[in-house]
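Hi V.,

You were right to ask for the full record rather than a summary. Here it is.
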Amino acid sequence: MTGSVVCVARDDTHRFSKVPQAAVTLLAGLGVQGDAHAGKTVRHRSRVRADPTQPNLRQVHLIHAELLEDIAARGFVLRPAELGENITTRGVDLLALPRGARLSLGPQAVVQVTGLRNPCAQIEAFQSGLLKELVGQDEAGHSVFRAGIMAVVLQSGEVRPGDRVVVTLPPEPHERLVRV
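Predicted structure:
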């Protein structure tokens, strides 16, 4: 399974959207260099308040461009990085990946998928009605989160738009993604 990087972004301040960049550097065990969410322990403000010693399973946020296009078809205007993702991809259904999948991003960087992004009220504040597009229910009544996936950095490296994304699946049985 392969795809490509569409956009890379970071922001050194805790804001909802991130700033697109020509390149970002992923740092093993930390996240995106210069991003407010980089660190060994949690950096998301709500998680820091709950327990600042928790490991940071949300070092890198990824969304596939096809999801943004699907939402745009419903009347929303979304550009890469506006939902706070660090990396926007094309050609890989990120939400269908199992926990533990590894993504090689460009020539060196490798991240490991930890789970789904937990959609928050900031999404609704960004664009009215958008949260409903990113949180739904399946046939069994279980919540379905479509706000992207989270990962940790296993191997450092620079990532740029146009870089290849190569997926390596973990051994079976695969664990479906849950929010982290």
